[in-house]
């Protein structure tokens, strides 16, 4: 079973339909069932009670200052110790940054949006309705692999993947390895040094037929988790 | 964990339905247990054995029975006819229990729709977009309890519940007890004589503040399953 942790706003979780697409995509890719739970519902007790083989932490459209940190305590307690292969994408990646950069996340009371950079004069805007004045990396971008890892099996030095973000992880957490970068965002991918916990600023799960690298990446991740041969 | 089996078409409602997701959240709020949504074609004994499933809910469907690929029901049929896990099938799910217990599904090529009755001359068609020409029971109707059972705890003779159907179970399966009826539809509720397997032609899960009986019914079911004190 795969656990998909939804990072949507709590009030939108009940009505969201987008997670169904992701759930179906992972079920088709692996043959394993995928359980969608909101981040505020995640606790060590929940995770221990189910035969979960992989955890995926989704993206989010929610500004970080609006997130109630106490609703992330359960997920923090899971991530501190779990040996279950975990992949956080986009906001999920940024969340791994917050959780692992904190000395004790239980004492953190507010999260900040860590923008990549301000837009330059006359620079075109790709997404106009959110975060005005800040640069948004949006579209399919080539990412440079800095370090080989099983999650990059089948790639040469680069992969081309979907990007859709204003913010990034500014500081590599202690115990994490920097795996990939591009000129827009230094920490495009990172991994825990001892446990199979991956963060990607890109959205490998948003592959297309023309740009299938993300699919290969997800297959590699689920292979690490033992869900694909 | 609760297993919510979707009887809708895969790729359409299963994937994108806000309805199933809203129902998942409703059951999670009610019981405190996570709900895994799976399409009926994904349900098989191996799935159920691998997961700590304490109750199974089988949804309604908008798909005519004549369009169900029977080879995709085999796994679900094996589960419902053999398991000791408490099951509640509502509307299409109730009819699915009828299909599974009245047939050896492996020998059936196509299923047929068992309508309640044709509309009479001049009788208004209240759901003309659903099954034109057939009588549809739609709205909130009284249902008469025939046999007392823990699932009717707190009711006195009748309950007022949501109905939305044109088909019905015509033949009580062997080993089943006829629990409830009304003048529109004889088999409004049934249960297996030895195991906690319930079928209801009505939709208890579609309770409202004004008509809360369905909520009590679903709570009774989850209490039987040991998920509510």
Task: Quickly describe the structure.
The complex is a heterodimer of chains A (229) and B (229). By secondary structure, chain A is of the alpha/beta class.
Beta-strand content estimate of chain A: 15-25%
Q: Please give the domain count of chain A.
A: 1
- Biggest chain contact: A-B, 21 and 23 residues
Tell me the series of helices and strands of chain A, N- to C-terminal: EHHEHEHEHEEEEEH
Look up the CATH topology of chain A: Rossmann fold
As a percent range, the share of strand residues of chain B is 15-25%
The overall pLDDT average of chain B reads: 93
Any idea of the CATH class of chain B? Answer: Alpha Beta
Number of discrete helical segments of chain B: 6
Spatial extent as radius of gyration of chain B: 17 Å
The oligomeric state of the chains shown is heterodimer
The general outline of chain B is globular
Report the structural category of chain A: alpha/beta
Shape of chain A: globular
General description of the model:
The complex is a heterodimer of chains A (229) and B (229). Chain A has a single domain, classed as Rossmann fold (3-Layer(aba) Sandwich), CATH 3.40.50.880. In chain A, 24% of the residues lie in helices and 21% in strands. Chain A is built from six helices and nine strands. Chain A is globular, with a radius of gyration of 17 Å. Chain B has six helices and nine strands. Chain B has helices at residues 13-16, 18-31, 45-50, 74-82, 92-102, 213-224, and strands spanning 2-6, 35-39, 55-58, 87-90, 137-145, 158-165, 176-181, 189-192, 197-200. The radius of gyration of chain B is 17 Å and the shape is globular. Chain B starts with a strand and ends in a 5-residue tail after the last helix. The model of chain B has no long low-confidence stretch (mean pLDDT 93). The A-B interface holds A 1, 13-17, 19-21, 23-24, 27, 33, 35-37, 41, 46, 49-51 and B 1, 10-11, 14-18, 20-22, 24-25, 28, 34, 36-38, 42, 47, 50-52.
């Amino acid at each position: 079973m795969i656990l998909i942790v939804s990072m949507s706003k709590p009030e939108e979780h009940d009505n969201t339909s987008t997670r169904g697409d992701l759930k179906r995509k992972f079920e088709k890719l692996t043959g394993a069932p995928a359980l969608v739970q909101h981040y505020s519902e995640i606790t060590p007790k929940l995770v221990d009670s189910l035969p979960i083989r992989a955890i995926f932490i989704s993206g989010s459209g929610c500004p970080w200052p609006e997130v109630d940190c106490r609703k992330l305590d359960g997920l923090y307690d899971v991530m501190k110790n779990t040996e279950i292969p975990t992949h956080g994408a986009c906001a999920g990646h940024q969340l791994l940054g917050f959780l692992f950069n904190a000395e004790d996340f239980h004492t953190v009371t507010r999260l900040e949006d860590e923008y990549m950079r301000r837009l330059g004069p006359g620079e075109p805007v790709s997404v106009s309705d959110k975060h005005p004045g800040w640069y948004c990396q949006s579209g399919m971008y080539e990412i440079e692999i800095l370090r080989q890892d099983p999650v990059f099996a089948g790639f040469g030095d680069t992969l081309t993947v979907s990007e859709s973000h204003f913010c990034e992880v500014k500081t590599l957490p202690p115990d994490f390895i920097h795996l990939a970068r591009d000129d827009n965002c230094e920490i495009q991918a990172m991994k825990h040094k001892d446990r199979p916990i991956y963060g990607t600023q890109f959205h490998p799960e948003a592959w297309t037929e023309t740009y299938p690298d993300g699919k290969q990446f997800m297959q590699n991740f689920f292979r690490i988790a033992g869900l694909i041969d | 964990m609760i297993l919510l089996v979707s009887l809708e078409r895969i790729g359409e409602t299963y994937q994108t339905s806000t309805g199933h997701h809203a129902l998942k959240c409703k059951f999670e709020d009610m019981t405190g247990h996570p709900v895994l949504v799976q399409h009926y074609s994904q349900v098989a004994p191996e799935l159920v054995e691998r997961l700590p499933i304490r109750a199974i809910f089988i949804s309604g469907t908008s798909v005519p029975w004549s369009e169900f690929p029977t080879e995709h029901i085999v796994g679900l049929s094996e589960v419902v006819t053999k398991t000791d896990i408490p099951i509640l099938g509502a509307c299409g799910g109730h009819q699915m229990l009828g299909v599974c217990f009245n047939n050896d599904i492996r020998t059936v090529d196509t299923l047929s729709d068992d309508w309640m009755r044709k509309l009479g001359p001049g009788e208004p068609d209240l759901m003309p977009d659903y099954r034109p020409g057939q009588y549809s029971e739609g709205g909130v109707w009284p249902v008469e309890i025939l046999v007392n059972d823990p699932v009717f705890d707190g009711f006195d003779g009748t309950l007022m519940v949501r109905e939305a159907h044109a088909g019905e179970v015509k033949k009580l399966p062997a080993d089943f007890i006829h629990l409830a009826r009304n003048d529109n539809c004889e088999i409004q509720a049934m249960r297996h004589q030895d195991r906690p397997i319930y079928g209801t032609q009505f939709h208890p899960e579609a309770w409202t503040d004004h008509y809360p009986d369905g909520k009590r019914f679903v709570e009774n079911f989850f209490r039987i399953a040991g998920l509510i004190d």
